[in-house]
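$ run holo --ligand "molybdenum atom" --emit tokens
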Amino acid sequence: MGETKKIRTACRSCHGGCGVIAHVKDGKVIKVEGDPDSPLSYGTLCAKCLAITQLAYHPDRILHPMKKGAKGWERITWDEALDTVAGKFNEVIEEYGAESIVVGQGTGRDYESHLYRFANLLGTPNVLTAGHMCYVSRVGATLITCGNLPVSDWNGGPKCIVMWACNPQWTNPDEHKGVDFWKAYKNGSKLIVIDPRKGFLANKADLWLQLRPGTDAALAMGFLNVIIEEDLYDKEFVDQYINGWDPFVERVREYPLDRVEEITWVKQDLIRKAARMYATTKPACINWGVPTEQTLNCTDCTRILTGLMAATGNLDVPGGNAFFVPPPVRTVSHFCRHKDLPKEQWKKRLGGDQYKLASRVAMITPKVAWEAILTGKPYPLKAGLLCGSNPVSTRANAREAYEALKKIEFLAVIDFFLTPTAELADIFLPAGTWLEQNHMADNWKRHGYVIARQKAVEIGECWQDHKIFQELGKRMGQDGWWDTVEDALDYLLEPTGLTWEDFKEKGYLKGDQVYYKYKEKGFSTPTGKVELYSTVLEKWGHDPLPKYTEIPESPVSRPDLLEDYPYILNAGLRTPTFFHSANRQIPWLREIRPDPIVEIHPETAKKHGIEEGDWVYIASPRGRAKERAKLNDGIDPQVIVAEHGWWFPEIKDPGHGWDISNINLLTDNSHEFMDPVMGATNLRVLLCNISPCEDE
Ligand SMILES: Nc1nc2c(c(=O)[nH]1)N[C@H]1C(S)=C(S)[C@@H](COP(=O)(O)OP(=O)(O)OC[C@H]3O[C@@H](n4cnc5c(=O)[nH]c(N)nc54)[C@H](O)[C@@H]3O)O[C@H]1N2
Ligand SMILES: Nc1nc2c(c(=O)[nH]1)N[C@H]1C(S)=C(S)[C@@H](COP(=O)(O)OP(=O)(O)OC[C@H]3O[C@@H](n4cnc5c(=O)[nH]c(N)nc54)[C@H](O)[C@@H]3O)O[C@H]1N2
Ligand code: SF4
Ligand SMILES: [Mo]
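-- output --
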């Protein structure tokens, strides 16, 4: 028996970042533990990471490339797999143009740098990610408003925290982990929670605002109304650094508190109290979560919340919403080589004329991809490469996603498992988990760190995603890749004077943080100011001022539907054990959460004869899904809260039960439901009904 080696690395079972010590014995990871020296996680780990050995060594994991033949999946070599994909892509390019290939990924998994480089060198503008409704939409909206993404400065000592649609201890999203928030809170900060559901943090909060789902933009206007009316804004900042304050104030006045109460269901007094607390307790940060982006209010809501940070003088200050300074490595956008995508190809981006902000941040939305596949308009998509994404579970209107991916002529999928999406592919490429990769992690985030993710083991014939893009790119004759993954890391690190070998010893790099950068340089917008009146949106022919738009399927906009669909469905409750559609096959995690859960207020459940633990059908005008009832009096009786991402790996037919408990069979992705500039799809708020499931 060999000795146990300890390898310092970084988890990526969610958006990643926690420091890990992997224990390796006889070439196998036997356990992981938290790295107390991690500047982001301080030794803490969550259940998903602790179960990584069960994922990496899972009997269902695919450890070699495969092609789908007449008799189903067959093992092939990497050579054959890469030749097949490259051959098919070259055929499509010749016959239809590179734009007829869609390259896609799911949520942020730290390989966008390589995926985009591959797509740009391929010449396709059609990159499909989750960014239209998650994070990149926030980045895009803040780029045009204040030039950068404002991030909560937990370690700068906020005195007031507004947790706006975020649940960081379960989700650890984006920049910092929940642990940094918790430290700031424990230091005595005030806490305001804006959430339709009474979770752990709402229970702890000084003020909890239980709003109607999807009405955040109106609520934020209510905050601004109080702040303006009561003179609580930072006049000096407003005078010097805001573009269009006067017209913005006019717009805010369209939202008096009685109107805001009617829209949001939050009592006026409580809005006033919360706005005062936020504006007068300094420094204060707003920590926004993804529900603010997953309706047609996406861009406007982000802009209004940025307006709150700016008006109160909390932008780029210690303990407020800071712009973090990255270490001097090469950036993801530099590595992507966006400039190499020819202009005429850039112009062909699907939906690019309509969803101009999505186009500016180089992405398309699923809707336009499915349309191009299903209708051939404006031109057909013939081939696709999807990495780390399961759209038949996770995209709005799952049925349409399923039909499109079934129809596309050629599909290659990169994953660990044969998911319902992977089952629709022609070629399967096996990815390495984070235990199997060398990478400079977190470079896509805006918290000022990059961290070393160091390979602990190799498993089967799996390759880390970065290598797959690199080798496929080379196979297609793309100029501009390196011999090895590590050579590319040397390139990324070059400006720091470190090589990958040096960096992995060091563990991480942090940028030198400076605040108040605007005092020297202004804001990186066309006017150099915070554009609450957006010159960019104006140029694009949109309303330059933000507003609240009623959700297209709500009790207000569709009273005609209320008889059949009386409830508001808030779809997408996360759990600490799963990551969207992932982890359902991991024994430790599935044991904690064996079934999909729908939360129902006890009074509502009673009306339908539903008891705790019963299977329930949830139906919308588009479809239905079944989940198990959990009674929760911390939600409004008119609101139903449901988990997303469910499929059943234990069902062995190729559908794996993708359409049994899939809440996205109920969601709508039509254009009228989408954010007009970003194309964010509505994943969160729609009308539904519930009924007991008689067949269970
Ligand atoms: N109704 C509703 N739908 C939602 C949401 C919601 O709130 N409500 N949330 C949305 C959001 S915010 C997002 S970001 C999307 C996410 O959507 P996706 O990213 O598409 O969903 P996942 O299920 O996380 O990922 C799919 C696959 O990635 C694989 N995978 C994991 N890690 C790796 C890796 O390192 N390499 C490779 N190649 N594969 C990997 C997993 O095995 C899994 O099969 O879902 C969205 N869907
Ligand atoms: N364990 C786990 N972690 C994850 C994920 C996962 O699937 N599982 N997904 C990852 C991804 S891709 C993302 S984008 C992040 C998202 O993580 P977060 O940004 O934290 O978002 P959610 O957990 O979806 O929702 C946060 C809170 O918003 C509330 N909420 C729901 N609708 C509304 C609304 O309309 N308005 C307001 N104000 N609040 C609302 C919910 O009740 C919840 O308490 O999590 C990431 N981390
Ligand atoms: S929070 Fe995310 S990065 Fe941290 S241990 Fe859990 S899964 Fe890993
Ligand atoms: Mo996300």
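-- notes --
The mean pLDDT is 97.
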